[in-house]
Amino acid sequence: MKIKRYSNGIFQIAFIVAAFWILDVVFHMMGAGESNYYYLSKLVNSILFASLWVLAFKSGKSWKKAVYSFVFGTWISFYYLISSYSGLVQWLGIYARYTPPPFVIGSIVLGPFVWWVFHSLVFYLGLEFVQLLDKNKRD
Hints:
- The chain has helices at about 1-30, 35-55, 60-85, 90, 115-139; strands at about 105, 110.
- By secondary structure, the protein is mainly α.
- It has one domain.
- It has a two-stranded antiparallel ribbon with strand order 1-2.
- It is globular, with a radius of gyration of 16 Å.
């Protein structure tokens, strides 16, 4: 029984990370792209936050998922702003951009603030997706 619950948790974490990370990469590639540091740091942080959600905070209530996603979106966006755009990681010898890339959807260019909202929404979609899969599995 413990093994089944453990493997179910791993799959939930993997689905949340995949939903967030793949959409984030796709939207960045549609825009100006990013550095490998960006993609790796987003992957590691999404694994951390998905693990925390599944192992500690998991709830079926939408408002709790929204608050957690907002915290995640805030952390992931501002963490990167502070670590990369400030020059900290470049000082350590890691290649990363000094300025945020434009957020481009079609031909519309939006400001970097939109990434914060985007990160929160996409992580929320990942949490909802996992709950939907879990409900379908039980039925």
